[in-house]
Write a structure and sequence with these properties.
Structural class: alpha+beta
Strand content: 25-35%
Number of strands: 6
Low-confidence stretches: none
Strand order of the largest sheet: 1-2-3
Helix content: 25-40%
Radius of gyration: 17 Å
Largest sheet: 3 strands, antiparallel
Shape: globular
Mean pLDDT: 96
Length: 138
């Protein structure tokens, strides 16, 4: 796997690209008028997207119909020397459709326990928690 990163203004705005040409903008969000997500925000998004792909894949194989999928992700950081790494990440998935809640719970469990490479990258230093609701029920 290889990605590229290119500075695209005179400040902190970067464009990341993958081999297929898909792009993401990253910026220093502590500056006014930033135009991208911060690198740490992108990490949170990556955790949810990685697991989200797993969950959707598992539920599709089980012929569950997902009409809406979203996630809220929060990261708690600590001060470590001059850096502020994550100490805890919590992902809350919200699904709608013709989905069995127990199948959705199992899909999320499989993702975080077995498949999601992004959350596995943080083990054992970062506590990653998750919850899932289907049609408003947890």
């Amino acid at each position: 796997m290889k990605v590229t990163l290119k500075r695209i203004n005179n400040d902190y705005l970067f464009e990341g690209s993958n081999a297929a040409g898909a792009k993401i903008l990253l910026d220093n969000t502590s500056e006014p008028n930033s135009n991208g997500v911060s690198p740490m925000e992108s990490v949170l998004m990556a955790v949810a997207a990685c697991s989200g792909i797993d969950i959707v894949s598992i539920l599709k194989k089980q012929r569950q119909t997902i009409t809406s999928f979203s996630a809220e992700i929060e990261g708690e950081r600590i001060v470590l020397d001059e850096a502020k790494p994550f100490k805890k990440i919590e992902v809350r998935f919200h699904l709608e459709g013709e989905i069995d809640l127990n199948k959705a719970r199992r899909a999320a469990q499989l993702s975080f326990d077995k498949y999601c490479s992004v959350s596995k990258t943080f083990e054992p230093n970062v506590e990653v928690k998750y919850s899932i609701s289907v049609n408003g029920q947890s």
